[in-house]
């Protein structure tokens, strides 16, 4: 039960955080959209682009599937949030930058102590003797 609960929280955060970051990115470029609309737009764009990605991945054009995923994602964001393609690209890049800076700050605040978990990553031979 606890595994299911933690997985549910993970997926909710996986949906909410990128939508909030896109909302902040739109605020930075001067566009005012509702937070819930940005979250739903992110979810819809991700699902739609993922379906196109999977459909294209099983064809001989799978080499271009990631590029098509990005373009379909940005186009979906553009349509749902009623902004231009360049604004969707800028908001997405700003959302990536905001997320990156947030996670770097979290790593600085809560550093991982590798000395405490060194045994997990120690694959040397002398450990086994």
Précis, in short:
With 129 residues, this protein is mainly alpha-helical. The chain has helices spanning 2-28, 35-57, 65-81, 85-109, 118-121.
Low-confidence stretches: none
Compute the number of strand runs.
0
Overall pLDDT score: 84
The helix/strand class is mainly alpha
What composes the largest sheet?
none
- The helix content is over 70%
N- and C-termini, Cα separation: 39 Å
- What is the C-alpha radius of gyration, as a whole number of Å? 19 Å
**Based on CA inertia axes, which overall geometry fits?**
globular
Order of helices and strands: HHHHH
What count of helical segments does DSSP give?
A: 5
The amount of beta strand, in percent, is under 5%
Q: What's the structural domain tally?
A: 1
Offer a few descriptive terms.
single chain; 129 residues; 74% helix
Summarize the structure in words.
There is one protein chain. By secondary structure, the protein is mainly alpha-helical. It has five helices and no strands. It has one domain (2-99). 74% of the residues lie in helices and 0% in strands. The longest helix is centred in the first third of the chain and has 27 residues, at 2-28.
Topology:
Blueprint: H1 2-28, H2 35-57, H3 65-81, H4 85-109, H5 118-121
């Amino acid at each position: 039960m606890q595994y299911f609960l933690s997985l549910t929280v993970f997926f909710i955060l996986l949906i909410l955080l990128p939508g909030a970051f896109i909302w902040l990115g739109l605020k930075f470029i001067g566009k005012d959209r509702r937070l819930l609309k940005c979250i739903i737009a992110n979810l819809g764009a991700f699902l739609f682009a993922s379906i196109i990605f999977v459909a294209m991945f099983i064809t001989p054009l799978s080499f271009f599937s990631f590029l098509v995923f990005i373009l379909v994602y940005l186009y979906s964001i553009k349509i749902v949030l009623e902004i231009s393609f360049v604004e969707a690209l800028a908001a997405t890049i700003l959302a990536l930058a905001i997320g990156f800076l947030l996670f770097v700050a979290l790593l600085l605040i809560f550093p991982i102590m590798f000395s405490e978990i060194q045994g997990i990553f120690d694959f040397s031979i002398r450990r086994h003797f």
